[in-house]
Amino acid sequence: MGLLGWPLLVLLVALAVAAPAGCLLAWNRLPGPRAARAAARLGLIATCQVTALLLAGTLINRGLHLYASWDDLLGSGETAGGEIQAVGPQGGGTRRGLGPFRYDRRSRTYVARPVGAASGVRAEVRVWLPEEYSDPAHAGRRFPVIELFPGFPGSSWTWFGAMRGADRFAEALRRGQARPAILVAPTITVQPGRDTECSDIPGGPKVATWLTEDIHRIVTGHFRALPDASAWAAMGYSTGGFCAAKLAARHPDRYRAAVSLAGYFRPTSPDLRRSPALARANSPVELLASRPAVDLLLAGSREDPGTVTAIDALLPRVRPPTRAFTYIVPTGGHNVRVWRDMLPRAYAWLAQRLPGPS
């Protein structure tokens, strides 16, 4: 029974309805002395509350896709070990022969849990291919890549579920506002409950290595993806926006551009703040001092506390060849609906910076 499936939701709805009904029926029929009846009634009340909370939590998770599976929620998935097998220098020329990737009809993505050869991280990756990828007119051509980072907590599913990232991109393609590209959503929370802010943690997970070196190798090894930094961009919302800006600033040899949707630009993770040197090495504000050759789109809402303030604090640090662009909307909080509505402009901006298939 999947965490996002209908069977679990139907079961929890039934339990949430049955619990108070059972409580009413049993309230005055409980046997035993007064103390025992009081304890039993407290148990009935607790059962009603637990079933209601489980249903509410499941509905929230279905809407935001914070946890895509029981492994994500319970932390029972593997995080290291094994090797990735590439399928050759051309990658997956068709929708077959994609190694560990399987097609998920619900999200229309290819899904795998590969192991990063450099990081040792094992986590889910979702890849969406544009229609042009299988068009005979584009046979043999490689495509640019947009790497998508969720917030914390979040999963690779969120970009294709609540964010509707692929749907909005397909709409932009139909309107001529984007160029065909491969969308890649890797897991950034590789250890449940631990927010590394996409960083390599000494003695801990090497998430930055996973998201840059390993994802690049996985995608170019299994799909017809352009390998050059000029054909790669990063985009994320909230914590993912921090990750996109940071990784692009720190690895201009991997990314041409980055989009931060309601992101922030100074580390907040306890893993990073325990070491001033580590915090500086992972702070976009500090990384811009090296003047990386990347373009940054900084998007936010004036009603989202701290968003515009964070952007205004970052802009004075921008020096050529780095270029920064802003996209500020007047209303909207820190939520998926606002970020989803920002996507058409973000995709159009990226279309001006990424090449077409070649």
Key terms for this structure?
nine-stranded mixed beta sheet; alpha/beta; 358 residues; globular
Terminal residue distance = 43 Å
Strand order in space, largest sheet:
1-2-3-5-4-6-7-8-9
Uncertain parts: 75-97
Sheet with most strands: 9 strands, mixed
Secondary structure: helix percent: 25-40%
Brief characterization of the structure:
The chain is of the alpha/beta class. The protein is 37% helix and 13% strand.
Describe this protein's structure.
With 358 residues, this protein is of the alpha/beta class. Helices cover 37% and strands 13% of the residues. A 9-stranded mixed beta sheet has the order 1-2-3-5-4-6-7-8-9, sandwiched between helices. The longest helix is centred in the first third of the chain and has 31 residues, at 34-64. The chain is globular. The model is unreliable at 75-97 (pLDDT under 50).
Produce the secondary structure layout:
Elements lengths: L5 H21 L7 H31 L5 H5 L27 E3 L4 E4 L12 E4 L16 E5 L15 H10 L7 E5 L20 H16 L9 E6 L1 H12 L6 E5 L8 H4 L2 H6 L2 H4 L7 E7 L5 H8 L8 E7 L6 H16 L7
Helix pairs in contact: 1-2, 4-11
